[in-house]
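Posting for a labmate who doesn't have an account.
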Amino acid sequence: MKKILTVVGARPQFIKAAAVSRVIREGYSNEVEEVIVHTGQHFDHNMSKVFFEELDIPTPKYNLDISGGGHGSMTGRMLESIEKVLQDERPDWLLIYGDTNSTLAGALAASKLHIPIAHVEAGLRSFNMRMPEEVNRILSDRVSSLLFCPTDVAVGNLAREGIVSGVHNVGDVMYDASLFYRELAAQRSRCLEELKLNDGGYVLATCHRAENTDDPARLSGIVEALIEISKSIPVVLPLHPRTKKLLMQRDDIVGLDKLILLDPLPFLDMIRLERSAYAIITDSGGVQKEAYFFGVPCLTTRDETEWVETVSSGWNRLVGADFDSICDAYKALEKPDNHPLLYGDGLASKHILKQLVKSA
């Protein structure tokens, strides 16, 4: 029996971990024991507990309840707590996802204790070192023994950095999750009916990255563009707690009441809204991909993206945070004719488990 200790802390990681945990329970329960550690980075009920309930993720054995503070403070507290857990559990592998502070803290703690690390979503690069996520993912990749890449581009990024050992293109676990949950969302979610929306009759938007929320000019450009777009089609905007707080402090943005403002949504409701939207406008990496999975055109309110395949395929366009750029891109929106499979075969979780069991 191999013990895998999984560290998660943020909403996107819960979704990815759900896909892998389900494969462990269904196909590897006699070979793998999984211990889940929730750092507490996302602590709001709608961004944490409800996800574990809705996605049927096993209850974490450890909940560290660490959130808030600066990046250094948060990562340091997580590092100290995760180290204690690793010393108690002595797992065969530490499994980390993505690019959050929880990811980096887990990677650093395990590397100091010489516990091998497996990084899911390895090799992603935005080439913007001002993004905390970019620093987290680069450092995590450097200390990982198994690097599970979602695309060929990610494999190439690692090769250019001299990382070739232990690298595997397994596809994207988010694609696994989207395939599994899209039908469940269609059956269970009633958000379209409750919001009185029709398939293809609205735009879904999200905005949470610090580069947008903490810059008044960028936040204004994005939100005012959404208000302008809402004159011709309903715009649904689930608000990240930080975004909501900052918006409520602003009195210079006129027309917020024209948007359909929501609290963070349960995953199945979000999937339902994504799948049926006319278009998606977002700064979220996960939502960019989900838009692609569901064949929905996407405008990304950033100056770069890790998911370059969505842009080169024509399904995603980088529009920054400028009012005119967003509005002009929306007016020119159209669906490309081709929709290639860019993110694997939908079995990334199984490929990951095969490698972990074989390598442990």
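Reply:
Got it, the structure tokens are right above this. The chain has a mean pLDDT of 94.
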